[in-house]
Design a protein that fits this description.
The chain is an alpha/beta fold. The chain contains eleven helices and 21 strands. β17 (308-311) and β18 form a beta hairpin. α2 (58-77) packs across α3. The longest helix has 20 residues, at 58-77. The chain is globular, with a radius of gyration of 23 Å.
């Protein structure tokens, strides 16, 4: 029988980051990672690879700021092998009332730690454009309220745009490079990767004692006092092996990539997000045909805000990623289906939605370019905070429900769980992500009126 100080179920970005934290920072070299497929391939490689410190929640803001601190450290020490940028997230609106709401939200975000708020109300305002070097880019928030200033810096936006909110300590990086670096370092420090599926977790007196793994060569057992559920979209299934029921559900999110041969999306653009509900621009004949069929009538109604895109790749790349979460989700859906159930209509709908923000994209609608479609599952809690901490079984821990922010949060989440496991001092935000928070009736009541969750 193998022996391990800790067994981690799942070699996605969260599991790998935790193995790295335990081995490199805390010196726990007898760590075992269990993964049924190849590392970083279930959902971690389906990410949009973005990061942000723009959150409506104090605890999430603190967690993300800490994670971004660590991302920036890696970018500096690795000569930016992870290709980190700080282009920001650019939210745009044609609704003056929304612009007023954004000002209030930005003031609150600045108080939470997003950085200073700068309001630009004239063409003479000193707005700093996007920098190619993330170290020279500002943090904080820029709110542009002058239409002429907006058109000068962002001429491809809908002419009806009345305000843009540019959150600056945001951008994207290579998640695959980050994951590969962490795994390389962890394995060089003694972390073992076992290919297989966790089939049982043995316990004695409500304490973890061993983990059974189904491998291609047969069943193996690993004696361990510590088991971590880092199973991503299989979080609920693995928790059942412990006799536990975690409050999570899975949401399928898709994205499309296509070649922007017309150059509608500037190659230096930030992540571009339309902040208003969208009514797709159908012809009269199309609208009548869609509306007559109950299965497609929903396409003629206003769809949710949040359609977004960004340029992908460097050099001569023309690729653009387009994403839009326009379908409602079932809060009871816990099963993750692989291969993913892809929707062939997604690209056209998302492209039409994105054309509301970038009218130049309308040129592609009549003859759709070829698009590559993929996606992954967001595993979410009811209030969209992650689960990071000990479970009600001695020696059992969880790091998961990282929804659509797993790549950006992984480093701080792993640091937090490693502190729980090793008995190190905990940061101030630890209680906000502890699984035991759901045992508090006051917290349950708070969830019922939660409001904004920060989901994009």
């Amino acid at each position: 029988m193998m022996h391990a100080d800790v067994v981690i179920c799942g070699a996605g970005i969260a599991g790998i980051a935790l193995a790295h934290e335990l081995a490199i920072v805390h010196g726990w070299h007898n760590v075992v990672l269990i993964e049924a497929g190849a590392p970083l391939t279930l959902t971690s490689d389906k990410s949009t690879e973005c990061y942000r410190n723009w959150w409506p929640d104090d605890a999430m803001m603190a967690l993300m700021n800490r994670s971004i601190d660590r991302l920036e450290e890696i970018a500096l020490t690795s000569r930016n092998r992870i290709r980190l940028n700080r282009r920001g997230y650019l939210y745009a609106t044609a609704d003056p009332q929304r612009a007023t709401q954004w000002r209030v939200q930005a003031e609150r975000a600045a108080q939470r730690g997003a950085g200073p708020l700068r309001i630009h109300q004239s063409t003479q305002s000193a707005y700093q454009p996007i920098s190619h070097d993330w170290r020279e880019a500002p943090d904080g928030i820029d709110l542009l309220l002058d239409p002429s200033l907006i058109r000068r810096h962002f001429p491809s936006l809908n002419p009806a745009t009345v305000a843009v909110l540019h959150t600056r300590r945001c951008g994207w990086f290579s998640a695959q490079q980050l994951g590969a670096m962490l795994l390389e370092d962890a394995r060089s420090a003694g972390v073992q990767l076992v290919h297989g599926r966790v089939s049982a977790v043995a316990q004695r007196g409500r304490r973890v004692t061993a983990v059974t793994v189904a491998t291609p060569g047969g069943s193996e057992q690993i004696a361990t006092p510590c088991f971590v559920n880092a199973a991503g979209p299989h979080l609920a299934t693995v928790s059942e092996l412990l006799g536990l029921d975690l409050p999570v559900h899975n949401q399928l999110h898709l994205k499309a990539a296509f070649a922007d041969t017309l150059g509608v999306v500037p190659r230096t653009a930030p992540l571009l997000i339309w902040g208003d509900p969208v009514e797709l621009a159908w012809s009269e004949e199309e609208r009548a045909e869609l509306g007559a069929d109950p299965k497609t009538a929903w396409l003629t109604a206003p769809l949710p805000a949040g359609v977004h895109c960004r340029p992908e790749g460097e050099g001569s790349s023309q690729q653009v990623l387009v994403l839009w979460d326009y379908h409602p989700h079932d809060p009871t859906a816990r099963t993750a289906h692989f291969p993913l159930p892809l929707d062939d209509t997604f690209f056209e709908i998302a492209l039409r939605g994105m054309a509301t923000m970038l009218p130049g994209l309308q040129a592609y609608v009549e003859r759709l370019p070829r698009a590559y479609l993929d996606g992954g599952y967001y595993t979410c809690t009811p209030e969209n905070r992650p689960l990071i901490g000990p479970l009600p079984l001695d020696g059992a821990f969880v790091i998961g429900a990282l929804a659509g922010y797993g790549i950006m949060a992984a480093l701080a989440a792993a640091e937090l769980l490693a502190a729980h496991i090793t008995g190190s001092p905990l940061p101030s935000y630890a209680a906000a992500f502890h699984p035991a928070r759901y045992d508090d009736p006051a917290y349950q009541a708070q969830i019922a009126t939660w409001g904004e969750t920060g989901q994009l």
